[in-house]
Design brief:
Shape: globular
Number of domains: 2
Radius of gyration: 21 Å
Structural class: alpha/beta
CATH class of the largest domain: Alpha Beta
Distance between the termini: 9 Å
Order of helices and strands: EHEHHEEHHHEHEEHHEHEHEHEHEHHH
Strand content: 15-25%
CATH topology of the largest domain: Rossmann fold
Length: about 375
């Protein structure tokens, strides 16, 4: 490793507890432990709430991250400028090596929104249209324009950056499809925090016989819910009315939460828990099915977190799924809601197989440690520095 190295991290809005902010903070912490200095840079937080017209949202995005230049003096003293996707765009014009870290791509999200099976769940979307689930039913052309603008911005930054990091093979392929040179894309899987691998002081008591668990964001409004596959989730929950169901969610839309609390039988909704509380709750659900209904994820930390506690994933082929799930060994990858229902039924009827699959899931999750991620990150930095 280079004797002295310093990296500027251009963060997103620190007030929003996103997966992006979590990963950035974890990488920063681990680099500091290895003797690499980091500098935290933030855009002007007030700009996130600027009253721009919806048709100019992409202009506002650029304004937000160009405002990070207010810390230019601190950044110019660094060897690298690190940002998530296009957050370091303001420093492309300076003589600094840019690291662009892609946890997902807007191109992948756009594809998921335009090629999907949502027409199979008309009852759910009828409720959306009637504003029974959420007041945000926006699928208009303005948002499509914003999405297309972000696809172009991400492509531009990725092509100009010195280093591009993809968190999964899927994200890497999406970047290559956009014309980013394959040889400059490093594949570094995300990591979960070390405490997920720590044994509970007291073994958790099973919450009963077989059940279903959903772990993740619900989404804010119709567009987010479509990406997260909440219509698919609702269809699964309707199908398995007599099976215990637990949803552990991050949510800001109280109306969606109230709907979920009352719509499904044998269902418990836990919202906005701390990471420690999430672990405590899902450790009691080991050998249950962890359903992953999303239409798009770049990685899916919740998949690895759930597997680390012995949940058995039944997942669409999203994010890291095909790189960690071995069909029939530690979980299942499915191609349709019909197939998801079949695999859940199989797990419900095969109690003996669930224990072995649960243990295999725990073992697979142990590959995604922060130390392994940091090692790969430093190797890539050294390759560019030398």
């Amino acid at each position: 490793m280079k004797k002295f190295m310093k990296i500027a991290f251009v963060h997103n809005d620190p007030r929003y507890a996103s997966g992006t902010n979590f990963i950035n903070k974890l990488i920063e912490k681990k680099l500091n432990e290895r003797g690499i200095d980091t500098v935290a840079v933030y855009p002007d937080p007030d700009l996130f709430f600027h009253d721009f017209p919806a048709s100019m949202r992409s202009a506002l995005e650029l304004m937000v991250f160009f405002s990070a230049c207010r810390d230019k003096d601190k950044v110019m003293d660094c060897d690298f400028v690190y940002g998530t996707t296009y957050s370091a765009i303001a420093y492309l014009g300076y003589s600094k090596k840019i690291i662009s870290h892609f946890g997902s791509t807007m191109a992948g999200i756009r594809n998921a929104l335009t090629n999907d099976d949502s027409g199979d769940f008309g009852w759910f979307w009828d409720k959306i249209a009637a504003k029974e689930i959420s007041n945000d039913i926006n699928f208009d052309a303005v948002n499509n324009r914003f999405l297309n603008d972000l696809v172009d911005i991400e492509k531009y930054v990725a092509q100009k950056a010195a280093i591009v990091i993809a968190v999964s093979s899927k994200v890497r392929n999406e970047l290559i499809d956009q014309g980013v040179a394959a040889e400059k894309i490093g594949l570094i899987h995300n990591a979960i925090e070390d405490f997920w691998f720590e044994a509970n002081l007291q073994p958790a008591e099973k919450a009963g016989d077989f059940g279903i668990c959903y772990l993740g964001r619900i989404g804010n409004g119709a567009r987010d819910m479509k990406i997260k596959g909440i219509d698919r989730l609702a269809e699964i929950y309707k199908e398995f009315g007599n099976i215990r169901k637990v949803s552990i969610v991050l949510a800001r839309d109280e109306k969606v939460c109230r709907w979920m609390e009352t719509e499904f039988k044998n269902h418990c909704l836990l919202k906005n828990l701390t990471k420690e509380e999430i672990k405590d709750n899902i450790s009691k659900l080991r050998e249950d099915a962890l359903i992953m209904p999303s239409r798009y994820e770049g990685f899916s930390l919740t998949l690895i977190e759930g597997m680390s506690q012995g949940l058995i994933p039944v997942s669409f082929n999203i994010g890291i799924a095909e790189e960690v799930i071995e069909n029939g060994n530690n979980g299942f990858i499915v191609e349709s809601v019909k197939e998801m229902k079949e695999k859940i039924n199989w797990l419900a009827l095969n109690k003996g197989a669930r224990k072995g699959m649960s243990l295999a899931a725990i073992s697979s999750a142990r590959k995604f440690t922060s130390e392994a991620t940091t090692d790969k990150f430093i190797n890539i930095l050294n390759g560019v520095s030398n």
